[in-house]
Amino acid sequence: MALEIVHTQSGARINGELDMATAPQLQDFLSDESPTGRFELDLSGLSFMDSSGLEVLLRHAATRSDDAPLVVRNPTRPVLRVFEIAVPGGVDGLELETEHEAESVG
Question: Whole-prediction pTM value?
Fold first, then answer.
């Protein structure tokens, strides 16, 4: 399945599957955008994410040029599970906001 990245007022909405085949597309998008300040990625349309996708998000959060976080919003249950397993204590620079509550992953 393809990955669709749609610009939003606060960042972007990601739809489809984020895996080894599509992670470079997100990496290119984030590299081109290089936003400063709070940047939100709405993952409510993401049906699947593997470690390749997670790596892109974590790497981008770690290399932001300012202190503003990369905010991952509304992950689907399968995507949220990847975060829970891979980074249970969170990481600096990445905030995870679920639909029902806002929590910091770092």
Answer: 0.87
